[in-house]
Amino acid sequence: MLIVDDHAGFRRVARRLLEARGLDVVGEAGNGREALAMTEQLCPQVVVLDVLLPDMDGFVVAHELAGLPAPPRVVLISSLTRAELGTRLDAVPVAGFLAKEDLSAERLAELAGPPPCPG
């Protein structure tokens, strides 16, 4: 899993929360360009992607990730609500959306699906 958020504090808390529940976090990115580069380098199965990034809109990053040869499952996160993001959420190729306050390993599994079987 790759966590993409421009706030280092949020990334740190999210990583601890997810790893404590047994999820493997392979990296963290602070902006869209880092997210794209790290996804190509690390090949995460899931990318937890903030909507508001300093260099690129998270929706743009999600579209770029969907175009990769082996695209990860993307779960958008935001401090904004689903209602505030409006119809943009319906037009982006992602597994789902979570408000940051609702982030949990269980909710991620519900949206992104279970990890693939090893081997």
Q: In the CATH hierarchy, what is the architecture at level 2?
A: 3-Layer(aba) Sandwich
H and E order = EHEHEHEHEH
Helical segment count: 5
Identify the strand order in the major beta sheet: 2-1-3-4-5
Number of strands: 5
| Name of the CATH class | Alpha Beta
For the biggest sheet, the summary is: 5 strands, parallel
| CATH-level-4 superfamily name | Response regulator
Identify low-pLDDT runs.
none
Structural class: alpha/beta
CATH domain fold name? Rossmann fold
Shape: globular
Tally the structural domains: 1
Q: How much strand? A: 15-25%
- Percent in helix: 25-40%
Mean pLDDT value: 92
What is the CA–CA distance across the termini? 18 Å
